[in-house]
Amino acid sequence: MHLSKRSAIIVAASLSLAACGADVLVTAERSDLDESATTAVPFEPNPGSGSTIDPTDPTDPTASTDPSTPPPASTDPEPSTTPAPTTPRVIDASAINFGPAKPPQPYDDFLLATITDLDVWWSELYPEIYGEPWTPLQGDVYAAYPDRPDDLPGCGSPRTRYRDVQEFVAFYCGMGDFIVYDDGSDGLLADLADNFGAGTIGIVLAHEFGHAIQQRSGVLDRQLPTVTSEQQADCFAGAWAARAARGEGGLTFSDADVRSGLIAMLEVRDPVGIDQFTPGGHGSGFDRVGAFQVGFRAGPQRCSELISDPLPLMPNQFNDSTDFANEGNAPFGYGESELLGFLVPDLNLFWGVDAAITGFTPLTLVPVQTIADVECADLEPGFDNGVALCPSTDTVYLNEPVALDLYGQATFGDFSIGYLIGTAWAEDVQSALGSGLDGEARQLANDCLTGAWVRTVIPVDFRLPEPRDPDRTAVVSPGDLDEAVRTAILIGDLGADDDVLGSPFEKIDAFRRGVIGGLDACAV
Questions:
Q1: What span, in angstroms and rounded, lies between the C-alpha atoms of 143 and 152?
Q2: Fewer CB within 10 Å, N- or C-terminus of the chain?
């Protein structure tokens, strides 16, 4: 989050990123897109919550309305306590070229199952969607590891070296119609599998398989920006994850595996500050999660339409030199140029002036150290997560130790706090509007309303439908929306039957709906 300045010096496009997938015949996931990926702090949600994902939610513009479609699984944020995804009834043992003397990985059978299922699935879907026969991969799916003695095929070069695969994590090559993934024990994929389950690697392979679909459908021949084809591949991966969540094909994803898919999208996002339209750009975490969710909710047919009807992309470049120097994080504090010193006035101005909510009274933020410091007889839930509204006194209490902990973690940052206090303001707005929602539905409406506020602090000329109020000074920085997504995953419901706050999937979906569609997209 950033405090805007009228005389800001815009950072020139001097940042550089090694090309990833610049050749239209090569598409890949980079291992260095997020420097925190291999050291990410595991998500540790507060216990005692849970919910299901409803694909027929009428407030979701991408929701499936087909009553014959089984509802996808909810997202359970504890992958370490859930069994690995089950494997299909029939597995093609030759689906992956493991090479001679491969060190075994605990997820080898699952990946064989994944590739088997992807081939079966696309052999059925491709003719339906594209009106022509499915052609299986002409090359292999190769496991790359440091001591592999035989050469991997090259993509524009005589051979592929293991260090090349490490850089890209996984890639599809249209020249030979093959896929290579990093099978090394120290690579990002192994790390993701260790932390979040084997489903993360399955989703990466489903993404690369999506590029094989693009090769057959002619998408890779169209010289499109890399981010456009990557968005569609993320969508295809989400559609396949929904198939697994429904238990089709014999390979079943748990709630935790679906949640891990969201995390996987975050871990391979573009670095903050990079223009996603740079050759090799894949998009922010917010954008990648969104494409995954559209595939999960709406299915592969919608994914096939993304080339001509793409999803909107959020800006990912720094706003000015100060934003660049702070890496997109405003200083923590309550002064005029500090995070909470400009967020609170902006929230009050938006809801009281710009949105002109009748009955809304500006709120005051009060930082406290413990619940014992709170003076409120009707405190709303949420204090343990960082903030809670006291309706009777128009006060939002900030649990400062929790806020500082989130702010200091590299994978969260300043807008984890912005998202949380945004939901407290949204709760007050619902009361002012006389909303009849309660329980999970009310919490998800808060997520959507928070997104609607965020929409108005996305940099000028990107999404704002009209000139912004000159008194509104807050501006979203690159990475802020990703931090909000991470926070939604952190606090989302644990179990499928605990419809309290909404599952991570639902919370992100509601937040995105507000960001993209504004207040009109929020059913309150």
A1: 9
A2: C
